[in-house]
Amino acid sequence: MAMDKAIEKKKLAVWQWGLIVVVAGIGIWFVYGLLADASIRTYRVPEEQIIVSNVEFGAFEDLIPIRGTIQPLNSVFLDAVNGGAVEEVFVEEGSFVEAGQALLQLSNTSLRLNAAQNDTRITEQLNNLSNITDGFEKAELNTKRNLIDTKYNITTLQRQKRRAEKLVSDKLVSEEEYESLVDDLAYQKAVLANLLARQVLEDRIREERLSQIKTQNEKLLENLEVSQSSFESLLVRAPISGQLTSLPVDIGESKQAGQRLGQIDVIDEYKVVAQIDEYYVSRVAAEQEATFTLSSNEYKARVIKVYPEITEGTFEVDLVFLGSAPANVRRGQTLQMELVLGNPVESLLLPLGGFIQDTGGNWVFVVDVTGEYAIRRDIRVGRRNNRYVEVREGLQQGDKVITSSYSQMEDMERIQLTQ
What we know:
Elements: H1 14-39, E1 42-46, E2 52-54, E3 56-60, E4 63-72, E5 75-79, E6 84-89, E7 96-97, E8 102-107, H2 109-169, H3 175-232, E9 235-237, E10 242-246, E11 254-255, E12 260-265, E13 270-277, E14 289-294, E15 297-311, E16 314-322, E17 334-340, E18 345-351, H4 355-359, E19 363-367, E20 373-378, E21 380-384, E22 388-393, E23 400-402, E24 414-418
Parallel strand pairs: 1-24
Antiparallel strand pairs: 2-23, 3-18, 4-13, 4-17, 5-12, 6-8, 6-11, 7-10, 8-9, 10-12, 13-16, 14-15, 14-17, 15-16, 18-22, 19-20, 19-23, 20-24, 21-22
Helix pairs in contact: 2-3
């Protein structure tokens, strides 16, 4: 019986080992790729459901779209100076009124009574001041009359003294009579000096008091006018000519002092009131221009006032028309405008899209050269208008970027585009 013969195991050739290594490497690389792809958060989306835009280099027009509402350039509000009940309404809301035209009548019994009492009290005070003035005039006349009498007495006594001087030397007039005349003349001269001094004093006092009385009179007359006007204010009149755009009152309704009664608009001049996103609050200033199209005609407007207060994410500006204003515009009409913030500048531009609200312009999905995937990439943007956003960093001319909304893919790192 023949013995078994040991079979030697054949060794693999070098080229066979090389082939095995290559195949194994390919397998490992393939498995690694699958694992790596599985670790990347990927979102699949059909190409027709997204918008892909090219990054371009061009002139960036620094403008933003705004929506404005036409309002009267000047408006006057009607407020109740004094409260009262609506007694009568003379015009209808929307009517055109003239300055001074009566609009409505209020009634206020308490105000009427107070006005009457004030009129009586002020009139009494005016009469008292008038009596004081009359007293000064009478005193002045009395002093002048006393001066006339005294001067007459002095003239008479001087004439008598001259006659007595001749008669006393002839013993025809006694010494006693002559001395009496001399004493009377001296007395009348003393009285005259006193009257002249009193006249100077009275004149000074009278001028001071009359000046004070004049001031008091003026104040009393002002008070009387205020008292009368407070009563007359119950008849509400139009302060300017224009359109009575608001008059929310009903007969019998009670209105408090300071309460709004209505509004009158000047209808031949208008302004545009626009709300702008707070993002632009530091870049909007007076004298900037805006353009808009209305009835196939182009018009311009100019910013005249910027209100810095921000309410619910927007701030307000006022604009006026430049050149000829649009015809047949109406209060409350809306205009779509473009506000120019600066001169055009050559920049790298990315078309604006829904992505800007989702990312704030901090990152985008850039389509690779194969067109099969889009990879997330951080970028930095600058200014934006109604069509483009200015790219500062992260993109190059010719890059393809998904610019539609990212609402379903914000947490993804890669987008796979499917047919």
